[in-house]
Input
Amino acid sequence: QVQLVESGGGLVQAGGSLTLSCAASDRTFADYAMGWFRQAPGKEREFVASINWKGSSTYYTGSVKGRFTISRDGAKNTVYLRIDSLKAEDKGIYYCAKYATKWSFSFNPQSSLYDYWGQGTQVTVSS
Output
């Protein structure tokens, strides 16, 4: 069973930057696309970004394009989410997730494509 552990959340001023990390316990991490989702207080969880297993293709939801960057390091079994120009609406719990199907990737934000989830890391934005 794959374990995903997020870290890097915290309190950041609006306009600042933050990099979230998600470490996977399984070496097969390299065969799967990964995604980041977030859940703001009182709202449903929403897709943020995803990256294919090679790290060569990425997909972002419209509201974060140009500010968020997803990347991965196969040697470290880790996927990252860098957030620049933080806004108040970026506040929430950020979750990483692993694609269910090996060597598969699509420009599709559906959470049903993912089978394992981390516990989340909290991002708070101060004004």
Remarks:
- The first strand starts at residue 4 and ends at 7.
